[in-house]
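Build the 3D complex.
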Amino acid sequence: MTIDPSRLAPMANAIRALSMDAVQAANSGHPGMPMGMADVATVLWDQFLKFDPSAPDWADRDRFVLSAGHGSMLIYSLLHLSGYERPTIDDIRNFRQLGSPCAGHPENFELAGVECTTGPLGQGLAMAVGMAIAERHLNATYGDELVDHNTWVIAGDGCLMEGINHEAIGLAGHLGLGRLNVLWDDNRITIDGATSLSTCEDIPARYRASGWHTVECDGHDFADIARALGEAAADPRPTLVACHTIIGKGAPHKQGTSATHGSPLGADEVAAARAELGWTAAPFEIPENIAQDWRSTGKRGTDLHRRWEERRASHSRGSEFAAQMAGDLPSLKQFDAYLADLAAAPPTVASRKASEMALGPLTEAVPAMIGGSADLTGSNNTKTKATGPLTSGDYAGRYLYYGIREFGMAAAMNGMALHGGIVPYGGTFLVFSDYCRNAIRLSALQRARVVYVMTHDSIGLGEDGPTHQPVEHLASLRAMPNLLVMRPADAIETAECWQLALQRADGPTLLALSRQNLPAIRIDVSENHCARGGYRISAASAPRRVVILATGSELALARDVASALEEKGIGADLVSMPCTELFDAQDADYREDLLPSDALVVSIEAGATFGWHKYVGRDGLAIGLDRYGASAPAEVLFPHFGFSVDSIVPEILSKLNT
Amino acid sequence: MTIDPSRLAPMANAIRALSMDAVQAANSGHPGMPMGMADVATVLWDQFLKFDPSAPDWADRDRFVLSAGHGSMLIYSLLHLSGYERPTIDDIRNFRQLGSPCAGHPENFELAGVECTTGPLGQGLAMAVGMAIAERHLNATYGDELVDHNTWVIAGDGCLMEGINHEAIGLAGHLGLGRLNVLWDDNRITIDGATSLSTCEDIPARYRASGWHTVECDGHDFADIARALGEAAADPRPTLVACHTIIGKGAPHKQGTSATHGSPLGADEVAAARAELGWTAAPFEIPENIAQDWRSTGKRGTDLHRRWEERRASHSRGSEFAAQMAGDLPSLKQFDAYLADLAAAPPTVASRKASEMALGPLTEAVPAMIGGSADLTGSNNTKTKATGPLTSGDYAGRYLYYGIREFGMAAAMNGMALHGGIVPYGGTFLVFSDYCRNAIRLSALQRARVVYVMTHDSIGLGEDGPTHQPVEHLASLRAMPNLLVMRPADAIETAECWQLALQRADGPTLLALSRQNLPAIRIDVSENHCARGGYRISAASAPRRVVILATGSELALARDVASALEEKGIGADLVSMPCTELFDAQDADYREDLLPSDALVVSIEAGATFGWHKYVGRDGLAIGLDRYGASAPAEVLFPHFGFSVDSIVPEILSKLNT
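Done.
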């Protein structure tokens, strides 16, 4: 390893120059972090990171995660300087402008080389834990020849103060993820001022308490950085490298203060910084010798990639590996057989149990699936025969005991999905979607195939009471763009929803499943009806005046309500609506046919009515629960809160007569 | 201190008997934790906890928080045995049944003596941090004679694994909350099995890294427990007491296993446990000598309470203290003057700035208000002249630098509000309501007066891009029962919303505030129009065909749209809707008058349209953003996403013509 400060210092200054100039041009952004971590990042890129700028999606590349995503100009600079096709210098000139891939925070869907979307603090690190799990699992499955890479993270004080970081490092320490190294930008500054305003924590001691190795370095001494990163790479434990840095390093009057964190330096200070750094090139220009030194950093990786590609081509499982990394699903024939069996003898089971039943053939057929639960394995029904425990002693396992770490679990799943080669699913109670909500949002924003198995999806949970009974959760999750919320009504719908979730390669799906048993309603399996989001279960016999719309556990009740109306000569269609988002995507004719304007539309769902008026209109009837639940057996709670034929039919009749 | 095991052991066994019998009768619940922690809780109650069963709301009582809320039978047993009026033995017989205050998890609104609602893991501990802050602040304000108590927490492995616990202990360690002691039920068992399935953490080492004192004890040795709790009480730092326990202690065949965690023991094991414990009394019966020993535990506190009440009665600030603890608001005359000034010269300011302006006179007038921000003080505009920093060196301060700990902040605010004497408010970006969502839910469920100052409330945030731009958040929060979501449109509405938030003693309010400047629209301050949730800003001049409905930053756009329609001879009312929940609470006439069925209703809000069809109906027009935003200046983004007169007017015309 050659550490030549006279070569590295100008390279680091190129990052500083691009960062302060781009922020200045945008009149918005965060120069402090890229300038502070420029030296560390330069050593990482030049000496340690395995990457091929000409093949950003090379499966065996190291993963680099900028968890402190506000310092986005750091990664844009690194990608541009080291020769990635994008961002171009014009992209950087247009930093934070509409149409530029150089968004305010790094977005995986904008730029190859950005492994995940960061900005919500702590989650980059937590996703990196997932990437490191994926790496070890695929290594255990396919061997060193195909999978043998590291995961590097740059994190700030904010990432380390967020609760999710506790969950993430606990998981990483427990699983012994030695390929994971976190470079902590230890600059003692947060937005509000000195870190001493809000924390006294001995961060390395905390990491050691979770089974991590820790080292430190002077973040502005290239040799010391290289030593520390070398120790990090060599140690069999995950490593935290405390990089002592000066935020905004190079800006003579503002460095070391929170003034550099989130605002442009200003023209005067930029000029002063150029003088301080000896940087004479015009804004957005990189002197050719420095540009060449930067482009040379990719050479090591390009060579390694070529040799790796040769190994893969001749490897007996090389194609299989490539297909798994591409996210291809194997044949689901076994699953079709399972569906046929269901249709032959539709069972009365809880949909969480139906999910377990569906997962049996699915996890057997799809080796990419890795399951888990946040300490509710027996309640979420997420474990199957095919998924043995994934532990520090056996990374080939396919089931993660995530512990009581919902947010860490969700973020790790995002990381696994984005790493590639893994289709993660994980469970908790639906009410605790609150605990991991922003990670679900990041699944949706990042277009990651993650399946959330959220059980105990209503007051049907019963005795555990209002803290554990979701009320507003279905509504609040349906409001989230690009997340499919599915609430199947019986075993066949549950199987169909699982199939749709797996087939959806570009986004997450959340399955809301019952604790309590549900009768079988669907019989026909000729077609996946759930794919349309909503569909008619039965048409009115008497002239249609009402359409009853329901999801999940309330479909059976809706069926009884429809029957009661029919008995009174009031025609009532019954519509199952397992996924409103998929229904909204149907054409207008289909939607109008299902929910005709001339009928009274009634929705029934044991949750907030919020959102249902889109289907029932101002004149319809949205039956739900717009208050918190109570602690009692489920069979007591449903009628208590009005979920009974006796309560609902009169409401409908009264509505019809007004 | 007299530790007499021959007296304490039967007392502890009374807890065990009640717990296993109640769970058995309910056929649902968690016997393992109460049985495991019975010995520790008995020592705490008998020797340390300051409480008066005849006055559960005594201001200077110690606060006891059962963070591991699933072990609810522990606290129900303790309250009943030590002589609180409720729960009665019949309440306990009806554990987990509709109407019993002995809900599945402890609920503060069901039982005096339950300081907060627990069950969502980690949050009890985090609320206790808030209670301990409140105690130190009120102590600094009113002195030892009136305020001098401890906060005791029982927490399980789940509480300590959740991310929020990292945030909470970091805050507590930093603030040096020596009156806070956490008794960790260190039983090495979680639901999925041994803790070794999911963690290798050295928990005490982590606590020490955050500035805590740690001790340990044999959780089944009364003298050792007493020694450890004594050391905890004496140490000036917050203390973690690792109580080594056996889960389900006393159930001979199941103790020490996760089988005792969350299921009834079964009749055979209950019988075996009675034999093991030498407990011969019938279910729900407590032998009189044991009952007497239990009732004697309250004597110490009853005496202390009497002496305290004498001190308070003769204290120069005794009445003031009582009023503050009761949550009474002082006169807001200064605030009325501020409102009049606004009306005289309505400013063009961001609503976050308007919030800061309103907070000036409010924090000056209301000493109970304690502000703060999760490291976004300058962005959330939460700090005022009256609120100096609350630090370990000066607890009299009224501003908390919460650090990058949104969840910890929200839970601490719940704890402060529930302690009494404090009206907490705290800020972060609206998008990061995701990070503290379940604590917001607990504010609402617990009916706690907490004000959330959530700024940067739409794509108006601009360049930071989609990770930082809320889209679904307004909808998802409106779906939450008992939370008021307010999105004021200008400085006067912001002031009115602040007034409503403070006056709301029985629940939380969330203010969604803009980053960008907003023109003044309201002038009239004769009445708080926001109190009705929605109100007409201007009536149509031409015959009314359209009602335009908007919130916050879109009200000005809506005004321009209405003007453009009027110019075309299409009458359009303009309605401001700062709070849909308050509007829903108005009578039908008011609502129909504002949103008449014969007009086309159009809503405009820069967020998900989800939920707006309740007002616009199936035939109306909900204009919003049903996708993630983008990184660009706000003034580019609004028209880009269709928020412009040029985009909206044609949509309305087309709708009118169909």
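The mean pLDDT of chain A is 97.
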